[in-house]
């Protein structure tokens, strides 16, 4: 009888102790935890590089070359600032400056009128853009559209001799892209920009005996980049 009484007392003590223990994980059925939303807000800087392809032409009082291809690589740096809304919308501003080596030429007879065997060449060696961005964040994926102003140094001249009239022209740009967060502060992106730099003027002897020519330039840019984001806002 003493043994039975001891066993009963021991069981009662164990039950009381178990009642004081915290609930086990299996007792939390029906509780769901939501993954925190990735925050795209804040200041960021980065690098980018890619390829540009487009068209130019020369048109003047003595005739026109028609369109010819202009293409080449570009690379540079980026800086921007994002604001993220609770509904996933992301607003931002972004600026970048790229070294560029886009060039192309035409062998139209118009070009060799002043210099035998010469071609009409258009080139650009720098591109700067300042744009707004609007996108939607799917956690670590950001899809965005972008538009704003573009500035570029454009040079036009006959080759040979290879001397050029150079101007810094203002135009516009628009496009879109996809950015992915590869870490809490690092992101990678790929984007497309259409850039219209208007019509520059070449009217010195560099373009043939001082005859003025209008030289438009349109570019399509495909770029990839990596950004570092500072502490989110």
- Note the total helix count: 1
> What is the helix content?
under 10%
Write down the CATH class: Mainly Beta
For the biggest sheet, the summary is: 8 strands, antiparallel, barrel
What is the spatial order of strands in the main beta sheet?
Answer: 1-4-5-6-7-8-9-10
Cα distance, first to last residue? 72 Å
Which helices and strands occur, and which strands form pairs?
Blueprint (H helix, E strand, L loop, with lengths): L1 H19 L21 E15 L2 E2 L2 E2 L3 E17 L4 E18 L12 E20 L2 E19 L5 E17 L4 E17 L10 E17 L4
Antiparallel strand pairs: 1-4, 1-10, 2-3, 4-5, 5-6, 6-7, 7-8, 8-9, 9-10
Write up this protein:
Helices cover 8% and strands 62% of the residues. 30% of the residues are buried. It is elongated. Mean pLDDT is 87; it is low at 1-28. The protein contains 1 helix and 10 strands. The strands form 2 sheets. Strands 1-4-5-6-7-8-9-10 form an 8-stranded antiparallel beta barrel. Strands 2-3 form a two-stranded antiparallel ribbon. It has one domain: Porin (Beta Barrel), CATH 2.40.160. With 233 residues, it is mostly beta strands. The protein starts with a helix and ends with a strand. A hairpin with a 2-residue loop joins strand 2 (59-60) and strand 3.
């Amino acid at each position: 009888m003493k043994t039975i009484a001891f066993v009963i007392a021991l069981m009662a003590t164990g039950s009381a102790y178990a009642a004081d223990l915290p609930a086990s994980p299996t007792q939390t059925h029906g509780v769901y935890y939501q993954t925190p939303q990735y925050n795209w807000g804040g200041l960021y800087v980065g690098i980018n590089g890619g390829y540009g392809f487009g068209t130019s032409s020369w048109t003047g009082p003595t005739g026109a070359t028609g369109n010819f291809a202009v293409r080449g690589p570009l690379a540079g740096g980026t800086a921007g600032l994002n604001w993220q809304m609770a509904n996933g919308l992301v607003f931002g501003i972004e600026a970048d400056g790229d070294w560029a080596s886009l060039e192309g030429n035409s062998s139209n007879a118009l070009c060799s009128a002043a210099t035998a065997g010469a071609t009409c060449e258009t080139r650009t060696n720098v591109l700067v853009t300042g744009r707004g961005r609007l996108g939607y964040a799917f956690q670590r994926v950001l899809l965005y559209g972008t538009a704003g102003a573009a500035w570029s140094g454009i040079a036009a001249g006959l080759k040979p001799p290879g001397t050029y009239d150079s101007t810094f022209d203002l135009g516009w740009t628009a496009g879109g892209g996809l950015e992915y967060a590869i870490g809490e502060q690092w992101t990678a992106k790929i984007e497309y920009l259409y850039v219209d730099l208007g019509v520059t003027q070449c009217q010195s002897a560099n373009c043939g005996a001082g005859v003025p020519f209008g030289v438009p330039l349109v570019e399509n840019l495909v770029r990839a980049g990596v950004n570092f984001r500072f502490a989110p806002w």
